[in-house]
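Supplementary Methods, section 5.1.

A reviewer requested that the exact input to the structure prediction be made available. We therefore reproduce it here, unchanged from the version used in the analyses.
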Amino acid sequence: MNPYEKKRRWKFFLLIFAILIGIASVFYTDSFVKKMQREEANQFQLWVKITERSMLLLDNEDFNSIVDDVRANTKMPVIVTNADGTILSSIGLDSTKTWYPVNDKLVYDSLYFVKELSKMKMQHKPLELNIFGDKKIAYYRDSFILTQLRYFPYIQMGVIFLFLLTAYAAFSSARKDEQDHVWVGLAKETAHQLGTPISSLMAWVELMKSKFDAEDDPLIAEMENDIKRLEIITDRFSKIGSKPILEDHVVYMVISNFIDYFKVRTSDKVKFTITGDEQVRAMLNVPLFDWVTENLLKNAANAIENEGSISINIIENLAKEQVFIDVTDSGKGIPRSKFDAVFQPGYTTRKRGWGLGLSLTKRIVENYHSGEIFVKDSELGKGTTFRIILKSSLTYEPTTA
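The structure derived from this sequence is encoded token-by-token as follows.
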């Protein structure tokens, strides 16, 4: 299992675990809320009975003290009305809108009561009070504490989710910075170690030329090309972690020069073609951009099992002052669900692949050249097209008639 698959599975397991914790919290809180609902319903029934009895025992001071205690401990808002809906009394509501004095009379906010009464009717069934044969109706709704408890698990899940998201982002950033430092150090050390054998190889080639009079030997020429290639690769590694210098280049020439080197080191069954605008220019760091081209061409060649073709088309977008570079192969294709995943570190379909080529390619294009790279199109069994978008180094002025 490659690192990308392991990471994806761990994320999936952690997500499932978090969902299970959330579900357990919601179910536990829901059972607790239902228990409190039953207790409040019993408390409301007790309040109704006490209220009925209090009218019959108005002169009993001991009973009146019990009534006062019950009312003081009633946490639910209550409204009592006549059978025709006229509001008679209330407890537990906003004191600024209920029974406040105006011109020596107690009045109430009718709109506020209508709203509160509609909430009570939606939540619970009312109970009747029988006071001296006159029927009254008592309504109530959940207490403020019970209402808070209903939303508590969702608020709790939100807070936990935000905390985990922040922690994940912080740890990921710290881990990424640490990995970047390790890779930069390793790359620079690799460049340093390659320097000595490359210098020796150059000296041995010069010695072979003079000893065997092989100045024009094509094999020696190819050996020199490979040594120059090693020098370029060493230069790439030495520049990792440093800001590269971008220079104005003809895109067609840069890609064409690399294809001339690359195609003689690839199977004869793979045909290379380069088409498009031969004059368009862009700001490039050639050693690093050759690395981009190499990774794309290697992936394209590996995707072709037998015979096939790789084509590079260079297009100029005058309106946006951009350069489009399309690399198309006739290989096995990429599933649409993997269009983004192919750029993830560790993602590979090869048994011996590291899955770093396209990830590195994306970083070079986006971070160093301020461009874009993505899978433009792919069809299983027919091939894939990668598109690179670079900023043109030419500025175009609109023509006037």
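Residues 144-212 form the longest helix (69 residues). These observations are discussed further in the main text.
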